[in-house]
């Protein structure tokens, strides 16, 4: 089952609750300065359209701009920005920024609070570092999806190994493990 294409956003940029737009945009500019503008994206109509209309959202990935399996209006859980770190130091920078600005929210592949800033590990920290077919273990960066792990197992010719996935999409191996799930 594929995600349905969202309707054009009815509201402006989702600003975190209790934060003035100017303060939020200043904080985002600060983070962009630390990580590079290409690694911090405001969630606006163009990003949502890019994910859905340019085949950037496939059965292998989840949306990072909003809840793809929403129960309420799809904009109720819209993110305000998506941040793409590439290493531990950048992740630490994001956490320090979030603690300083108080712009942080809990979520899975999508935010649970409108206006949250999403940290997406899947774009730049997504390599399968090692697969040991003898003891059936692997070493992964945190953004590796189940589908990417499956593809790497196949590419290395380890057809006797298999991945027990919790969903048909690209769910995160690390995220699933941290959530004490099975798979």
From TrEMBL:
GO terms for biological process, alphabetical: lactate catabolic process
Bilayer-crossing regions: none
Domain FAD linked oxidase N-terminal residues, every copy: 80-177
Protein name (Swiss-Prot/TrEMBL): FAD linked oxidase N-terminal domain-containing protein
One term under GO cellular component: mitochondrion
A Pfam family recorded for this sequence: FAD_binding_4
Signal sequence segment: none
Lineage start: Eukaryota, Fungi, Dikarya, Ascomycota, Pezizomycotina
Superkingdom assignment: Eukaryota
GO molecular function (one): flavin adenine dinucleotide binding
InterPro entries: FAD-bd_PCMH-like_sf (IPR036318), FAD-bd_PCMH_sub1 (IPR016167), FAD-bd_PCMH_sub2 (IPR016169), Oxid_FAD_bind_N (IPR006094)
């Amino acid at each position: 089952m594929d995600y349905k294409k969202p309707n054009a956003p009815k509201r402006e940029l989702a600003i975190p609750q209790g934060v003035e737009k100017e303060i939020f945009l200043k904080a985002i500019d600060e983070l962009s300065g630390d990580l590079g503008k290409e690694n911090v994206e405001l969630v606006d109509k163009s990003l949502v359209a890019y994910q859905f209309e340019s085949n950037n959202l496939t059965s292998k990935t989840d949306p990072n701009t909003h809840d793809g399996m929403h129960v309420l209006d799809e904009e109720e859980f819209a993110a305000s920005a998506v941040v793409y770190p590439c290493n531990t130091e950048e992740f630490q920078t994001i956490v320090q920024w979030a603690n300083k600005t108080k712009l942080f929210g809990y979520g899975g592949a999508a935010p649970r609070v409108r206006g949250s800033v999403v940290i997406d590990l899947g774009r730049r920290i997504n390599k399968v570092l090692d697969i040991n077919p003898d003891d059936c273990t692997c070493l992964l960066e945190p953004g590796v999806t189940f589908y990417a792990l499956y593809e790497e197992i196949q590419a290395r010719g380890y057809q006797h190994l298999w991945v027990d996935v919790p969903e048909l999409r690209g769910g995160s191996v690390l995220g699933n493990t941290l959530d004490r799930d099975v798979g």
